[in-house]
Amino acid sequence: MGRWPTGSRERLQQAALALFVEKGFDQTSVSDIASRAGVTERTFYRQFGEKREVLFDGGESLQLAITEHLSTSPPDERPLEAAERALMHAATEFFSDRLPFARKRQSVIDANPELQERELLKMASLVDAIRDSLASRDVPETASRLAAEMGVAAFKVAFGRWIDPANGRSLADLIRDCLDEMRDVAAR
Amino acid sequence: MGRWPTGSRERLQQAALALFVEKGFDQTSVSDIASRAGVTERTFYRQFGEKREVLFDGGESLQLAITEHLSTSPPDERPLEAAERALMHAATEFFSDRLPFARKRQSVIDANPELQERELLKMASLVDAIRDSLASRDVPETASRLAAEMGVAAFKVAFGRWIDPANGRSLADLIRDCLDEMRDVAAR
User: Fold this and answer.
1) The CATH fold of domain B58-186
2) Which residues make Cβ contacts (< 8 Å) with residue A177, sequence separation at least 6?
3) How far apart are CA A171 and CA A88, in angstroms?
4) Domain limits of chain A?
5) Which of B37, B134, B160, B163 is a Cys-bridge partner for B139, taking CB atoms 3.0 to 4.6 Å apart?
6) The predicted structure's pLDDT at residue B39
7) Domain B7-53: what homologous superfamily?
């Protein structure tokens, strides 16, 4: 679950992603990946429990970074602002140097309905984690849930903009912009 | 895809849901369902393409009712208000007399991760449909997407409250309340 994959782990991830893009996710075997990375299949399975984990293993660390940041936010901060700051923090922490990876990863996911379902499940789990983290700070339950839903929706939209080839801005800036637009949309 | 299943279709749906609750979704076969409903398996497959469709066949009609309502909304209506009215309309149209069904259905889905993924996919598809419908009315793309995300998030939270045994209010009222709470959460 390390943030900075090194050595065989990094090679495996790069090899896997290149193959997923070239051949498609379902058509790529663990044997293909290990062979391209110049390691054994056993090394693959030591690093990743299964093929899908190459794409999803960062999700838990991301979630943890967000909820840890939330747990240190000022107790009187409003829930959406707390969620916003935590998401921007995690964006800077996790994604600053991951744009090429994120673009390739997204193209693989877009081509595969099962991977899309898995990604949706990951996002739903992030909503639950943010909601629980806010609720533990005495934010009422519905407000916690709604702020979590709004924060994650903004994150998703910002992420889509971030990986757009025409974009040159940081993910954190785009998250802030999306939440500001959401505030405009919500204003009567 | 009829809203008011009658005859064998209705019997099949009730039999299936009762069996899913009793035995679990995976442990229930189409043969069990047909036998409980007093029809042949062939009749089941004529009504539902597969077992999962018993739970998800209303999704397309719901989506269509929402987007059709959106297409008739006043052109100067703000996107979140348009989404809100369409969701409230569909809630009244589709769910007024479906509370016992909705409760059982949710308990089946909550017990099965694959069904949860399917439900998430259905909700993501609803977000896309609302976004497209708003964007076709010249709402800017990001505002369309954000209003769609917020509307569906409110729908989900309202739905959870609606099926709560302690609730006595209508789904439409709960959607309106959730969107008002969302506006409060969004206000700085």
Assistant:
1) Tetracycline Repressor; domain 2 (1.10.357)
2) A158
3) 8
4) 7-53, 58-186
5) B134
6) 92
7) Homeodomain-like (1.10.10.60)
